[in-house]
Design a protein that fits this description.
By secondary structure, this protein is mainly beta. The chain has helices at residues 8-14, 41-46, 126-129; strands at 2-5, 23-28, 31-38, 58-68, 71-72, 81-86, 92-99, 110-111, 116-123, 138-143. The protein has a single domain, classed as Jelly Rolls (Sandwich), CATH 2.60.120.1140. It contains three helices and ten strands, in the order βαββαββββββαβ. Mean pLDDT is 87; it is low at 1-20.
Length: 145
Amino acid sequence: MRILFFLIPLFLISSPLVGNFNHVKTCIKSTCFDARIADTPITRAKGLMGEDSLPKDSGMLFIFPELGQPKFWMKNTKIPLDILFINDEDIIVYIVKNAQPCGKNDCPIYKTTRDASKVLEINAGVSKTHGIHVGDAVQYFVEDD
């Protein structure tokens, strides 16, 4: 059974079951990703650092407690990524394409000038391959076992 959550960040932040949800199916148009959730300061800070690969249909969904302009860098990240910034209405407001790994301390900072409350990281080039653009809607599904 699939359950659709349009307001998943609110649901995850307010739910007593927060610790039980570590993945969410995140879909843009007809493309879906099995996204690991990073919704605490520790998981958001670690992100995909140190990981050698990311399956092609996977990603990481960062959920922030407030709308703002989150900043990302690729320090100690080994995988080139597309970084999709998503607002409270679950619309992509900005995309960084092909952000490259950075092993030094002086890494570029990636941010949006528009407010976002979520960020989806996926493999570099996937947004281009699947025609994902600013303005596209994002949907979230939690599958009931």
